[in-house]
Amino acid sequence: MWAPPIPQGRPPMRVNLFQSIARLSETRTQQSVPPAASGPAQTQAPQQPSVPDVVARYLTDSFEAAGASEVIKQTKDSNCGAAVATLLSRTAGKDSASAAQKMDTLESRFTDGGGTTPEELAKMLAHEGLEVKKGTSNFDMPSVNEALARGQQVVVQLDTNRLATGVDSKIAGDSHWVVVDGMDDKGNYQVKDTNTGTKYSVSGQQIADSVGSAWELHQGGGMLVVGDPQSAMDEGTLVEKSSLHTSVLGNTDGGGSRARGSFGRESS
Which of 82, 85, 101, 186 could form a disulfide with 107 if both were Cys (CB 3.0 to 4.6 A apart)? Predict the structure, then answer.
């Protein structure tokens, strides 16, 4: 099949499948249906791929990578918690070698290598001098907006398949940690995802639904508001204060594989 030549000096355009799926799910009800063709022969519209096909394409797609200083990419199938703590750390190096070393240190010190529970993530953050200021079992948008206005970040534990497709397929993806640290000009939340080392925008409702699916499919999920402590505190004090906010999220390990080709929960 003929394809137009690519102009010299410009790389071919890449399609971010995640954003395409997310936008499709948000705008589907607004799309008009074209009139049926007249005559005996009518062309049948192509069928949309099944949810598993869509998820498989998302999980194997290579997104347009963000800058190395913006989003850290996790180095193992289940160390997204350590990657998030490294990303938010005020002192950790963000180059690939320094970040990988920090992730290994945090993972080996605070987890058994099978993922990161909310309590373990709070301990990682305390080790990096950060305080968990609030925890909720849902994606509480008013609290998120207040936190962002104060310059804080929100770490969310959710189901990857629901986040990727926006579809309530009942097919479990991974329990996964992502960072929300801003909003775009359309009111969507900016997500930093160590799963792929990318950043993208998603509606608040889709994130909230993904947290709901995490509870249904993984028995845990929610969000943690993270920021600098108001006054100097040692690590033990930060752990004690932060632990007051983690139990509402449950005790499920958040992992998040970088390149999964199967469905269902990641074993831990």
Answer: 82
